[in-house]
Here is the input.
Amino acid sequence: MPRHIVVIGHGMVGARFVEEVRRRDPDGDRARITVFGAERHHAYNRVLLSTVLAGGLTPESIRLHDTEWAQTHRVELRTGVAVTGIDVSTRSVHLGDGAGHRYDELVLATGSRAWVPPIDGLLTDDGAHAEGVAVFRDLDDCAHILRLARPGSRVAVLGGGLLGLEAARGLVGRGVRVSVLHPVGHLMERQLDAGAGAVLGATMGRLGVDVRLGVMAKRWTPEVGLECDDGSLLSVDAVVVAAGVRAETSLAAEAGVEVDGGIVVDDRMGTSNDRVHAIGDCARHPGTVSGLVQPGYEQAAVLADLLTGTDPSARYRGTPVVTRLKAKDIDLAAVGDAHAEDDGTSEVLRLEDPHRGRYAKIVVRDDRLIGAIMVGVPDAAASAIQLHDSGAPVPSDRLALLLGRALPSEAGGAIRPDSPARLPSAAVICRCNTVSKAKLVAAWRAGAKDVDALSRVTRAATGCGSCRDAVSGVCDWLNAAEPGEPEQEGAA
Here is the structure.
């Protein structure tokens, strides 16, 4: 008799968990799956919402599954259905219509919700968004923003973090005049130092975004504008709030499951209740940072191994953090402990070229790269990420690394993404889905001869999409080697 797994949440991580279970149990012999998704949409790639906002993709093009996927894979999927409560004593979940569903194992993939700061006028008395106010979190939010932000209109974006900047860049691409208000002295302060933040701010300015640092909104009044704490009044037509998110933990907390800024989980993705599990942004694990899809995907794979019995020893040990800004004409990556400074144990090197929108910083300890910030230097970013992931020694010519010109032999194989022949087999090409060069080569040998086919088979470039050029480079190299096999040492 298969165990009944109920999944609450049909976002990227919830959908990936279901995929992982069915990869291990395609016929449903070990697991019967029911999924409840509060959104009316089928699962979609939330990472690409900024591209939808910019008009580069349609909502349909970012869907993760077709409409028949669930039925074909023996999954009971109910979209547009909110779970209102969990009763751990009877192992059941309750829906808005009063119906109850029993479970053997419950998986919470509820993600996070947009946080609206306590600024006068943003919310109505009943807690709804006021006229002209939108958050930037899901597909419906995108549609709402586009209704508010017509070409030629003026919009204020509250928040100069990842989401705020992606929203601002997307709206500028639509012909909207955008001002970004950020209360800190430089953009993306969680990931960037002041030097990199200044370069990023100047780049955003050249792209048409009015960046206002150290400024907070005080009051929003439709037909008047946005009052700021520096005394200025922005005559804008709408406000987009991208001031951060909070883990969606209400169901867990009300059920008595331990919550501390997120649903507390162990290396088995287990909670304080042994039949309840949590993955993705709603979960709090000491080895990861919320807001990135890669940790959630890795957690989904571990939990699928455990709940299907495929690998009872599977454990989640954390995910190295790599942050990328997904905005047109901006190449930015931050990895590891990039905020470290010279302290006698670390070696910190910087290269600043603000007039050309470039900034590079590496932090080296014991001849290993422990952190890096790269703006406008994609070759250096590719090398830095590979070095951080592999733990290989940093090349002796540190300046060459900052410039993206490190020799392959010195960079431990961490080289330009357009030189795939020299990359080691273990080099990770797609971080979101942990796809190595070796996996791409194996898929190509099995018949996936173009980029789309490689993506379908391996999932490479289906997360944030930033690795698509690298996947294309590997594909071009493999096809150029036909009819023979790749012979280079690093080929796999």
Remarks:
- Residues 407-418, 487-492 have pLDDT under 50 and may be disordered.
